[in-house]
Amino acid sequence: MGPPSARPHRECIPWQGLLLIASLLTFWNAPTTAWLFIASAPFEVAEGENVHLSVVYLPENLYSYGWYKGKTVEPNQLIAAYVTDTHVRTPGPAYSGRETISPSGDLHFQNVTLEDTGYYTLQVRYRNSQIEQASHHLRVYESVAQPSIQASSTTVTEKGSVVLTCRTNNTGTSFQWIFNNQRLQVTKRMKLSWFNHMLTIDPIRQEDAGEYQCEVSNPVSSNRSDPLKLTVKSDDNTLGILIGVLVGSLLVAALVCFLLLRKTGRASDQSDFREQQPPASTPGHGPSDSSIS
């Protein structure tokens, strides 16, 4: 019995494989929206900057293309159109005078404003009358202004509480708290609001005294508030207890000194009295008379 024979090379391909090949060939030959891709440079755009919407891949055999303001193609939203054969650029109803369309399909903006935020759609028309389009969302950010801090109180008694609020007129910003020129280390006694724009400290301690600032930022800019000085006073009850203990200690010490001095004084008086008292005479012995010769 010989070795097992190999599979014949002319094996039939399953119908699922034929379907896959047909799908790939269709995808390869016909233009689809997967070919068009729009990129923004810079990616994060600040108000007043210039921005460039570029087509990463622009297929061949184009007849014309046009840029529209919005996510859909509407005639009244046409910014500009370009015909490849004649190289003619035609502005549309949505043209503001700040846009430039290039032969490569790119759209250039000068001095963008917040109103320029939104979708932009590129529509491409091929010579075989096929149409393809792709959209891109452009976000324009404003430069953030300096925020300010509002405090429930700038002088707080120890064990009390304080609420600091960071106020800004800008939208779409993130908040960060600064303590003595360092990023605030949030402790268990501190609580931040949902968007971090409010800071609550409860209970407050002496170590919380110092200068507080809040910093607001967006993808293109940041700004920091002026310092707010927070003063923490000692608790009156604690101070009273300390003073009472100190006064009591001084009174006890004074009393001890008084008693010691009094005892020492009595002992000294008794010693002086004994030294001044005359010695007692011996019985039977009187003063001797001198003999008269």
TrEMBL record:
The chain crosses the membrane at residues 239-261. One of its GO terms (biological process) is T cell activation. Residues 147-231 form the Ig-like domain. One of its GO terms (cellular component) is external side of plasma membrane. Residues 267-293 are annotated as: Disordered. It comes from Gorilla gorilla gorilla (Western lowland gorilla). This is CEA cell adhesion molecule 21. Belongs to the immunoglobulin superfamily. CEA family. SUPFAM superfamilies: Immunoglobulin. The keyword Coiled coil does not apply. Keywords: Glycoprotein, Immunoglobulin domain, Membrane, Signal, Transmembrane, Transmembrane helix. PROSITE patterns: IG_LIKE (PS50835). The keyword Kinase does not apply. It comes from the Eukaryota.
